[in-house]
Amino acid sequence: MTHFIGRRLLHAIPTLVLISMVVFAILALAPGDPLAGFAANPDIPPEVRMNIRHQLGLDDPVYVRYVKWATSFVEGNWGYSFQSHVPADQLIGQRLPTDLAVVGSSYVIAVLFAIPIGVLSAVKQYSIFDQVATTLAFIGFSLPTFFTGILFIIVFSVKLHWLPFIYNTTVTDPVQILKQSVMPVVVLALFTSATLMRFVRSSMLDNVQQDYVRTALAKGLRSGKVIVRHVLRNGLIPVVTLLALGLPAVFTGAVITEQIFRVPGIGSLLITAIQNSDTPVVMCITFVYAILVVVFNIIADVLYGLLDPRIRYG
């Protein structure tokens, strides 16, 4: 197992390097100037603007800037924002608790609902419960989050005046914090749970008709015990991959939903950084996301062996 994890980490290094090079090149070639605000200010002389550009290293060739960024990142220096002059990791750390509260709670809720509903839907195939759950799941992942979010705002904020539609971090009242979190959490949970439920149902159906299930039932084991201890364990193997790919979003935010409800998370920080050509912040967020995807995929591979003893790592 240790050798397997070590090999996967070694294989991940060139992948991460390639990702960082591609993202850095895209940002370097993209239109926009991080010092556009200075250029529009007539009070700042051109020589001052050139001096600032030189201090930030913006007049260096792209490959020189990339080497400087990569070296600093490895050393633990994730760069400073061109706009706020605050370390990029500090900006992420300021918004991470909000993402964990909103996106994290929505993911937990989605998993808690999707797995039991998916299992019951597969066990009771073609029943009324299965048809209702399948229909709702189709609706859930067919509607984009921006549509569901706007619909919720119109119904629960504009028409009924039940919930605030703007997330306010200055609120200290627990009731108000809960009320302003309801809509973004529910919007994200609906989409995620619908997707997970369909995967769980499909995976369970692939396993519930296997020979080992019929053999276990023929031996007199209770159907509930067979489903929970045997079918569910094998059925979760492909679902683990989907869960692993979704977990990095908990730490990097939900871009669209955060923009709709004005949630000050990492997703909204990424959009603002892209609009301002704030390369250090964009690179920091995207590269941390890439690292998390690689790490959680390795964790998923390890979990495969725990769920299915037949899987062996050489």
Kindly describe this structure.
With 314 residues, the chain is mainly α. It folds into two domains: 2-74, no CATH class; 92-307, MetI-like fold (Orthogonal Bundle). 77% of the residues lie in helices and 0% in strands. The chain contains 13 helices and no strands. The protein has helices spanning 2-29, 36-39, 46-56, 62-74, 88-123, 128-142, 145-159, 174-208, 211-218, 223-252, 255-261, 266-275, 279-307. The N and C termini lie close together (8 Å). The mean pLDDT is 85.
CATH top level class name of the largest domain: Mainly Alpha
Number of DSSP helical runs:
13
The SSE order reads HHHHHHHHHHHHH
Rg over CA atoms, rounded to whole Å, is 24 Å
Note the beta-strand portion: under 5%
The name of the CATH topology of the largest domain is: MetI-like fold
Q: Roughly how many Å apart are the termini?
A: 8 Å
CATH architecture of the largest domain: Orthogonal Bundle
Summarize model confidence as the mean pLDDT: 85
The computed structural class is mainly alpha
By CATH, the superfamily of the largest domain comes out as MetI-like
Number of structural units classed as domains: 2
General form = flat
Topology:
Elements (H helix, E strand, L loop, with lengths): L1 H28 L6 H4 L6 H11 L5 H13 L13 H36 L4 H15 L2 H15 L14 H35 L2 H8 L4 H30 L2 H7 L4 H10 L3 H29 L7
List keywords for this structure.
314 residues; MetI-like fold; mainly alpha; flat
Structure in a nutshell:
The protein has 314 residues and is mainly alpha-helical.
